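Q: What changes when flavin-adenine dinucleotide is included in the input?
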Amino acid sequence: MPRFRTRLVHRRWLAPGILELRLARPEDVAFIPGQFLRFVMDGYERDYTMVSAPDAATIDFCIAVVDGGRFSSDIQKAGADASFQLTGPHGHFVFQGPANPAVFVATGTGVAPFVAFCRSGVDNGLLLHGVGTADRLIYRDILQSSLGDYVPCISRIPEKMDRPANAFRGRVTHYLERQLKPGTYDFYLCGRGAMIRDVTALIDQQFGDSRLFIETYD
Ligand SMILES: Cc1cc2nc3c(=O)[nH]c(=O)nc-3n(C[C@H](O)[C@H](O)[C@H](O)COP(=O)(O)OP(=O)(O)OC[C@H]3O[C@@H](n4cnc5c(N)ncnc54)[C@H](O)[C@@H]3O)c2cc1C
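A: The predicted holo structure follows.
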């Protein structure tokens, strides 16, 4: 497995609790949008999916900072001159072509592979991005402008508050259950295991002839 070391170029808060990390891309590092790299840290390893296009000057990631998380803590402490050891690329969660209409379903930073798809020319499909609150709708501009259909699914909009444009009040599972027309789709699911389990069960019940591709973050 290819192993390389590279340096931190930029780090910024994309949204509350979500960091974007940019690393210099060594010229010989190539990947397919949707793949991930493994950070080899002191005594542990963590995987992160690239949000950048393969030919960009930097390799970019969006990282949900979790309370008590080892990498979450180490990445916030890393100095401006930090460098990281990585292996990869790894993974097979890549766009399969337009055989059936694509439905991309993400929660939180699970949107990462779909950002990479959009930056590499995928321009058709429905994307459901599940978040708790609207301030976590990262990469909204590129997702909205690249894909035919972009629906933020916001689970905690107070009843009396107006929804942001296009937004659905509720979880991605509720949207799929109530709004998606019967049909045969290519579903791409990325995020935490609980969402993947719920959506997979729903697809089995309502969209049984569809194809399913999954990337689980835990
Ligand atoms: C193939 C793959 C790709 C991934 N890509 C990304 C990515 O692009 N962006 C990204 O943010 N993460 C991604 N992850 C998850 C990532 O690898 C780590 O698991 C995560 O960042 C937590 O690492 P940590 O060391 O900070 O926390 P840990 O020390 O591993 O965990 C601390 C605690 O936090 C909990 N926890 C872990 N993640 C979350 C979460 N998201 N929300 C709430 N609680 C959590 C754990 O269950 C544990 O109890 C990916 C995982 C895989 C397997």
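Observations recorded in class: The pocket of flavin-adenine dinucleotide is lined by residues 36, 46-49, 61-64, 66, 68-72, 91, 109, 112, 192, 215, 217-218 (CB under 6 Å).
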